[in-house]
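Margin note from the TA: students keep mixing up input and output lines. Inputs are the sequences; the output is the structure of the whole complex. Example:
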Amino acid sequence: ETILSRIRSFDYSQKNAVLVPAAALGVGGMLLYWARPRRKMNIIDMGNGWWGSCERPEEWKEDDSIRPFKIETSDKEIEDLHQRLDRFRFTPHVEGAAFHYGFNSSYLKKVVSYWRNQFDWRKQVEELNKYPHFHTTIEGIDIHFIHVKPSYVPHGQTVQPLLMVHGWPGSFYEFYKIIPLLTEPAKHGLNEGDVVFEVICPSIPGYGFSEAPHKKEFDTIAAARIFHKLMSRLGFRKYYLQGGDWGSRITTNMAQMLPQCVKGLHLNIAFLGKPSLRRMISIMLGAYVPWLVGLNREDARRFYPYMQKNVYDVLRESGYLHIQATKPDTAGCGLNDSPVGLAAYILEKFSTWTDKSFLHKDDGGLESKYSLDELLTNVMIYWVTSSIVSSMRFYKENFSTDPDLTAHNRVGVRVPTGIAAFPQEIIHTPHVWIKDVYKNIISYSYMPRGGHFAAFEEPKLLAQDIVEFVRKVEQL
Amino acid sequence: CSSLAGIMLLEVFLVLGTLLIYFLFSKKKEEMLPFKDGWWGKGQKPVTKEDSSIRPFKVETTEEELSDLFRRLDQARFTEPLENSCFHYGTNSVHLRKVVSYWKNQFNWKKQVEVLNKYPQFKTKIQGIDIHFVHVKPPCLPEGQAAKPLLMVHGWPGSFYEFYKIIPLLTDPASHSLGDEHVFEVICPSIPGYGFSEAPHKKDFNSVSAASVFYELMLRLGFDEFYTQGGDWGWLICTNLAQIAPNHVKGLHLNMVSVSKLGLTHLLSVLLGRYFPGLFGFQDEDVRRMFPFLKKGLYKILSESGYAHIQATKPDTVGCGLNDSPVGLAAYILEKFSSWTDKEFRDLEDGGLERKFSLDDLLTNIMIYWVSGCIVSSMRFYKENLQKGIGTQKHEKLTVRVPTGIASFPNEILHIPQAWAKKKYTNIVSFHFMPRGGHFAAFEEPELLAKDILQFVGKVEKEQLWKKK
């Protein structure tokens, strides 16, 4: 009361002397509060999903057991395959076709002959079973994965968990040659064994031994979420990710969803989507003055001529993408019924995406980089699981909502990222533009050789780059 | 000083004016599309003269062929569709199972072969390959009248069989209440690489090659002047034929047109045509069919052209499995008979297939691809025509001056208004909006199409328009 009476007794000018600074402080304080640096919400919402058949039961608690799994085959399966191979109907190609019209049917005859007479599926099944396989149910569907731990860990060393995601038309099998280089690097002369991994390779739902979603709209976000749940179920709180093809999109989404769980993201391909006006101008200028727009000589060599390499070549190679993104059930129908048709469709990619010049070869250059056993084992995974149609549906589910696969590029990727840029990859994305999306690039390597199927074709090169990248991240 | 400026200004105007006149008038060049000679047989062209005899042909089948087909149908491996997907992801495999069951148990291929053989068929060697064709003459002709030769060309994934319902309406119109003023003898060849026509063994067999081969066929059959009709690839082949031999083609009738030279006017009319149709020469029906353009034009093309994209780049890959799996072949082909007949059929669980066609008819067409093993070569035609890009070939830049009649069906994949068509077809005698029907006009609405052909020919004949080119 005394204070009030004292204030009331102030005269006008003295009131001002108090009120104005007080008001200024008040307003200033509010401004500061409003403009304070906020933690930016730059992640993707995880959401949730249910992909099993029929409705999700009301009182439902997911069976989270992890069940060991072994791939099996039977006489009946092999007999059926042989019968289909025997009655395959060939179409002669036009003279001088090489691989320009697609898979060369003369060479296909040789592949089929090998498949029928020398390829030993039982032996390959044993080969596939050499790593431990498991199944676990997540969001209503069975997820298949292999989990390989190092056989020997030096005293006191940490083992880094590494999730590697395949793409189309690949499978978990693509990683079979690179896994030993990552779980036992010292044994393969990679380093002194300071970085050792335990590797988890899941199959994307709808591919291989992972159950296919029964509901629509299963996209890379859903796959990313499921793989996070998988890693969590396996007891990992922080882990590394590696991917190419769809694996690159899925692991990128994973890094955007739960960045706190992702120690590092390694990619052998990065998608940037349609260029903005700024980038279009850089593209045009870069043809003449690459250094001005941040392109080095290797970038320029791989990226230009622009129209040829980024428009015509892409148009020539993306017919499969167009039809799979619009009519997957039609495109895959015959391929699930004709193993030779399936092989031609898949192996054409292993030819052209490994080296574009293979188009000019009568045999598509396939056996110059891979063995027929490896190639056919991958095809057999699609065949015995009847997963070609569901694998193609992934294209429609993703492209119909997001035509250039970059809806989430605006969110950006902030986890430490490593990029291995292979020279024969379908498209080359220079460092200067990738960092618009991937804000934290720790390493960007121009690989000396290799194409799209990096882990399959150049496992040692890729492993070295992954190890280098992880070493750098660990030192941060 | 001002006079100098005035002189300069005058000079500038003169130059601009000359350029303008040059551009306006120089384009009216009289150019014909050259006949494309070729040799499509295996190996080297022999020195001896080609056998040009015309040999009768009959479609045949064997027990072995049938039992092989049945075994494959029995062992077909299907993939369950996603819940509630209807035909949105392509051919629905639940419905496909029903079709396959009919195929195995009720469809009678032997009987259908007899149906196919009801019209006389022939083969003749042209440019090194055997060309198959159906040749139907009118059963009777009115006094003093001559039958008008009419070449009808099919498309993909159709065949000569698509014309089997319309042929009697054209060779014997009187019996079908269509009058007897114009009676036709109809020739339906199979495009090389399709059905019973041999596939080219060399690269570069495109629509101009096909047009040249069919031109030789008509000459060999003794026709100096004839009409042509076509849709799908038939549209392009007949157009090319009219460009190669305008003095021999009395009239060109199309149930589909497409434009490949898109310019500023097209862009403007797409953006503004809905609001100012008159300005761009659009009629109400044009606007109804074309707009909203994104939905009915761009998105529709994108969602329906995946097949064209892969066939134009990797035909041998995509066709490989389809030549080995009859079920896969059926799924691939039936999908087109669904969505190209009515795009709303995608929302139906059975794709609306049997609303406009009988299963017997649909399967007979598919069997033609199966027994002749021609799916891969049929797809190559896309690559040979499209690989260099749309709008780049010479024939796409030339106009057509032959009297043209266009029957525009409402459910055609893309609607091209007369305003756009007349830039290429400079002599459109009739352009009609058909009341119903889709892409496979002859197969689906033979009577409507026959009537339009008859009225078109009527106009051409009455005014002897082919002489006025």
